[in-house]
Amino acid sequence: MRVALADDVALFREGVAHLLTEAGFQVVAKVGDAAELLAHVDADPPDVVVVDIRMPPGFGTEGLEAAREIRRRHPDVGVLVLSAHVEPHYALWLLDSDARGAGYLLKDRVTDVVELTDAVRRIAAGGLVIDPGVVARLVGRRRVGSPLETLSEREREVLAVMAEGRSNQAICDRLYLSPKTVEAYVRSVFTKLGLQQGPDDNRRVLAVLAYLRR
Questions:
Q1: At residue 114, what are phi and psi to the nearest 5 degrees?
Q2: Model pLDDT for residues 109-125, shown as the tens digit of each residue
Q3: CA dist., res. 205 & res. 136, Å (int)
Q4: Are residues 97 and 148 in the same domain?
């Protein structure tokens, strides 16, 4: 699998490249700004792009904007945006109603090789990946009269894992529940939140995020 990296900090960029290479990925580009990333992707599209949210020259949202532009120009290229801070609004901005092959992770998560490589593979396969820290912030917001208040503690746990882009089997593994039990919790969560279950995991994640962004 071919991956392009973009981060203005050379040490971090090389570190991620090393981790991915050791895990069997082919790192085809390592660049320090968004413009160079776009040029590389246009010339030779990789399977997945990993890009820092804040890039030169302004260190604002250049990386995020580049990720969205890559999705527009090359819809088959997955994009994983990295951030040093929990910024749910940027994660939600990345994922529109037709999102697939996209993700948002905190940079701290990159030190976990399993977490990083799993995210890249899921994104390459067209899945959605949302950092648990972002999900926790969204799920934990206190809103008066919100149906979230009607969820049990276990239902909230299921909702949180679901919103990360995980499948029912992954929820089983994370929470040590049987498949039938997870299916029951998922149905209950969707019923209480007034949501329709989508035909695939991405539709389900987008439905949950659409609710949580209110």
A1: -65, -45
A2: 888 899 999 999 999 99
A3: 14
A4: no
